[in-house]
Amino acid sequence: MIEVVSQDRCVKCDVCVKVCPMDVFALGPDGIPVIARQDDCQTCFMCEAHCPVDALFVAPLSGPAPAGSPYTDEAALLEAGAMGRYRAVLGWGGGRTPGSRLDQNHVFTARLAAGSQPAEETPAGRRRVSGEPSA
Amino acid sequence: MTAEVTLLRHADVLVLGGGPAGAWAAIAAAEAGADVVLADKGYCGTSGSAAAGGNNLWYLPPDPALREAAMDAREAIAGRLTERRWMERVIEETYHQIGRLAGWGYPFPVDEGGVERRGSLQGPEYMRRMRRKAHRSGVRILDHHPALELLATPDGTAVGAAGIRRQDGGGRWEVRAGAVVLATGGCAFLSGAFGLDVDTGDGHLMAAELGAELSGMEFSNAYALSPAYGAHTKGLMMQFASYYDEAGRPLELGDMGTARQAVARLLADGRQVLARLDQAPPGLREAMRRSQPNYFLPLDKAGIDPFTQAYPVRLVMEGTVRGTGGLRVVGEDCATTVPGLYAAGDVATRELITGSVSGGGSHNGAWAISSGTWAGAAAAAFATRGEGRARSRPAGRAGLRPHGPATGAAAEVVRAVQDEVLPLDRNYFRTAAGLRRSLTSLDRLWTDVAAHLSGEGRGALRARQAAAMVAHGRWMYRAALARAESRGMHQRLDRPEADPRLARRIHVGGLDEVWTAPEEPKEAVA
Ligand SMILES: Cc1cc2nc3c(=O)[nH]c(=O)nc-3n(C[C@H](O)[C@H](O)[C@H](O)COP(=O)(O)OP(=O)(O)OC[C@H]3O[C@@H](n4cnc5c(N)ncnc54)[C@H](O)[C@@H]3O)c2cc1C
Ligand code: SF4
Ligand code: SF4
Hints:
Domain FAD-dependent oxidoreductase 2 FAD-binding (chain B): 12-355
Number of domains of chain A: 2
Strand content of chain B: 15-25%
Number of helices of chain A: 5
Order of helices and strands of chain A: EHEEHEHHH
Region (Disordered) (chain B): 386-406
CATH topology of the largest domain in chain B: FAD/NAD(P)-binding domain
Largest sheet of chain B: 8 strands, mixed
Number of strands of chain A: 4
Number of helices of chain B: 15
Radius of gyration of chain B: 22 Å
Mean pLDDT of chain B: 96
Cofactor (chain B): FAD
Low-confidence stretches of chain A: 117-130
CATH class of the largest domain in chain B: Alpha Beta
InterPro entries (chain B): FAD-dep_OxRdtase_2_FAD-bd, FAD/NAD-bd_sf, Fum_R/Succ_DH_flav-like_C_sf, Fum_Rdtase/Succ_DH_flav-like_C, NadB, Succ_DH/fumarate_Rdtase_cat_sf
Helix content of chain A: 10-25%
Distance between the termini of chain B: 55 Å
Number of domains of chain B: 2
Bound molecules: flavin-adenine dinucleotide, iron/sulfur cluster
Oligomer: heterodimer
Structural class of chain A: alpha+beta
Organism (chain B): Nonomuraea glycinis
CATH class of the largest domain in chain A: Alpha Beta
CATH topology of the largest domain in chain A: Alpha-Beta Plaits
């Protein structure tokens, strides 16, 4: 879930308020967004991807980080270079190569297709269930 | 819903939902000359499952042998519920539209041979570009404008929708249109799966209120693996996984096809299961990271190296998002059984191309592109007939206009539905007795919701979502009961074999009374 909005880094552009699909942020009185509805956060990292100055940190947890968790410690996160990682791998921001250019999913989907022998109605033994999402 | 109308618009075509299906529909309608409004609950460009998760596609060059082989491969696992003609159309349309996306500048990778690889779309990049294209095509986009109900003529033609303006004071918006495309995604029951909490089945409920029918709702129990602490359900890398028990002993679970069910059994029995990507060749690891960044990022953030450290996993429910059921389409243009109402993407059934097995992994994304394109164009054509000028009424009921005193609390309803649909023991491993027990609770819940549940402002959306989830659960389990066999993702412990007589689709519908009806089987094609 979203844990940190850096007061120092935020340039009050409102982008996170707009792009968050779950409407988690509200504009604070000073123009810096506040995490108004953390319970609604779906941990999608979209705000991180779109914040132009890497001012946001979304913890990988599907619930709120416990008190004292390193995921809420802004100074430590900055120190560790933990903020803005998604934007970096997407290759968004000046001087970066789009991450999609490095996409080699075809290697892995081909590998998967080659290894799978479909048989939904196998009569005996271990039933192969192919109704499983894989991507 | 008592809020005052603070935004009123007129359009030829109204698209509800701005994931890929909605974006492709809006672009197609605009290109057909229609004046288009697109309203999304969240934000067109980040919202929905493709934006968060990315999509590998059923993308095949126009090589007949290759395409035949791909269709044969799917038919072999799809439980005899697909139609070849639809598969052919989707493959062709997807190929064509992805070519256009390349033309719009999507940065596809180029392989060693200098060939662009167009079979995979990275979510944030894909949807950012789709928004831009929709905008440039003249589509008017309303973000944070969830639709809560359809508007209909007295004879039941869909002629618009209404909802709330959640970031603009919570007032009511209305768009009057000549035709409506529903592209509101599937329903993952607010399970928290990353990117899927916007998908609560609102569109299915709105359509059913006008009498729309559904199909394939028994194929609604997709679950996917994520780290136990999180909700990131990216699965492609699990092809390299080995599994371990709580004591670190290796579990022999077979290959990917069988492992997931074995993991589900263990988790349902309260056991811990850990995964490690032992089988990933070192030479491929960098490519893995680059290809599936949102598999690795949540692990990186947690300080876990999945190549060397085993991490605990859980199964997160994805419902009809990576299931296959949804609104029944009755024509090649993705018309529903309601005049003026078209369905695209995950809100529609995907049985026609993926049958009883998940289409997440290639088919669903291709379906979103093609069905969106067809629905958008057809809605534009329908709108020119001008039926939308007629008098209309708002059609929303449960969760919006209760027929008794408003007393219900949406959060409690959501919890009650989740208790019935999320546990593996209820929904992954199904039995007739378990389904009946859940239906008794869900039916009672529906009666209650219809009588009492509503809300104001953001609460109106929460109430409506809760109602939609109850409806979804009831269709899902009623269909699961009607399919007294195991087929694809629908596994009945009490009926472990497939019944050849049930190699046909099952329709379901209704709100106060839910009904099911098997589709008449077509003549077998020799
Ligand atoms: C983790 C994951 C990985 C996947 N990988 C693949 C893959 O590799 N290949 C593949 O083919 N498929 C894959 N899928 C499936 C694929 O992402 C979906 O099939 C596709 O995104 C469907 O598009 P859609 O537009 O119908 O729905 P969505 O992308 O879910 O969009 C629905 C939109 O509707 C909006 N909405 C909802 N309710 C309302 C309302 N009441 N009013 C207004 N708007 C509303 C939402 O905000 C959202 O923007 C994957 C799914 C998941 C979850
Ligand atoms: S997107 Fe980043 S910079 Fe903009 S308001 Fe949000 S936190 Fe501040
Ligand atoms: S992670 Fe997703 S849901 Fe959570 S605040 Fe960021 S954009 Fe919103």
